[in-house]
Amino acid sequence: MNHSRENNTIIWARKIASLAQTGLTYTKDPYEKERCEELRDLAAEMMAATSDVETGHWKTIFKNESGYATPKVDVRGAIFQNGKVLLSREQDDGCWSLPGGWADVNDTPSEAVIREVREETGYPAQCTKLTAVLDRDLHYKTEGGHSHPFHIYKLMFLCEITGEADELCHDITDAAFFDLDNLPPLSEHRTLPKHIELLHRHYQNPNLPTQFD
Predict the structure, then answer these.
(1) Biggest CA pair distance of the chain
(2) Tell me: the pLDDT tens digits for 126-169?
């Protein structure tokens, strides 16, 4: 499928799903509720058309969402030492990424990324700079894109280690430092090479302004 068409289909599907979700949150009319559920199912079918994942999977994902639909927040932390970057290896695809994940409710952004770094690398850390707030769609469409049911903001932080490493969380199999010019296979729906390059530029020049969008 043409990537531009595929990206448009994903955007439309997410918009339809978000409208259906918000409608189901506020409507009192049983007929309106029925229409919103049909729209939610249509969004699932559209997502299935852009991926190898069956419609039922997307239906379950959309059905589990409630309340007013807003973008989700993914936090990522970069730690550089001696020309190397700290990466964690994901269990689900065997590839590597900057440590991070979804921000949890009641966490501040810095608390969220510190928690993720600790869980995925074992290292206690502190944030030193917010380098970028990125709209995931704008940074992935030129790479061919990955079907994702939600609109995502990526918060990219520079961090530094504050202590000795501990155990990794269950869905991470390893954590290690890699030379910037010899990176391992990346889990590219989580981290692209240009994300690491962006963060390293800020590491080298802390006075750079935070990038957004």
Answers:
(1) 62
(2) 999 999 999 988 877 544 445 678 899 999 999 999 999 988 88
Is the whole-model pTM more than 0.90? no
Separation of alpha carbons 53 and 16, rounded Å = 19
26: left (phi over 0), alpha (psi -120 to 50) or beta: alpha
Q: How many residues does the chain have?
A: 213
DSSP string for residues in the chain: --HHHHHHHHHHHHHHHHHHHHHHHH---HHHHHHHHHHHHHHHHHHHHTSSS-HHHHHHHHHT--SS---EEEEEEE-EETTEEEEEEETTTS-EE-SEEEPPTT--HHHHHHHHHHHHHS--EEEEEEEEEEEHHHHHGGGT----SS-EEEEEEEEEE-S---PPPTTEEEEEEEETTS---B-TTT--HHHHHHHHHHHH-TTSPPEE-
Beta-carbon count within 10 A of 94 CB: 12
